[in-house]
Amino acid sequence: MDEALIEKIKNGNDHAFRLLVEKYRNVVFYAVYGVLRNEKDAEDAAQEVFMKIYTSLPRYEKQGFKTWVTRIAVNHAIDIKRKKVRRKEDQQVEYEEFHAEPAASVELQVLKKEQQQELRKRIEELPENYQRVVRGFYIQEKSFQELAEEENVLPKSIEVKLYRARQWMKKHWKEDDFS
Questions:
Q1: Long-range Cβ contacts of 79-82 (<8 Å, 24+ apart)
Q2: Neighbour tally for 45: CB within 10 Å
Q3: How many domains is the chain partitioned into structurally?
Q4: Which residues contact 142 (CB under 8 A, 6 or more apart)?
Q5: Residue 11 maps to which CATH number?
Q6: What predicted TM-score, i.e. pTM, was given to this entire model?
Q7: CB 162 within 8 A of CB 137
Q8: What tens digit of pLDDT does each residue of 22-55 get?
Q9: Each residue of 165-178: b (16+ CB within 10 Å) or e?
């Protein structure tokens, strides 16, 4: 049944997509709610997931639709949660900078800029196959999904590459190098 709906959707049948949304609405909602733990956020995320599903359908390869949908939902929820954490951290830094004494604020900015330059220089020391994923994830703040699409691989491949890059850094860099 799903395969027939998917074919109709690929051929431009909007009603078939509505049927698919109805069928998988709860699956998607509970998948994102399980990560986000907030009903309003989960509702918004579920809508975004269905947009992703719609645009990704041409790449679906009949490997189990419910599993595929759930994976998209969970990955999207994780991306949202990660962005929220980063936003919260950024707001905390902005708050601290705003409430710091003017002289201290300038000093902090100079130190932060020096640390960023040192980090960029150190990233160049990484093996070439790790540099792009480290830059993309940590500096450009891209999700596993975005990086995977850029490199035309699965998000799990990006996750593994990032894990290996971290292991390489732990082995070759000392924490003192950055202080």
A1: 79/143, 79/144, 79/145, 80/32, 80/35, 80/36, 80/41, 80/45, 81/35, 81/36, 82/143
A2: 24
A3: 2
A4: 136, 150
A5: 1.10.1740.10
A6: 0.51
A7: yes
A8: 999 999 999 999 989 889 999 999 999 999 999 9
A9: beeeeeeeeeeeee
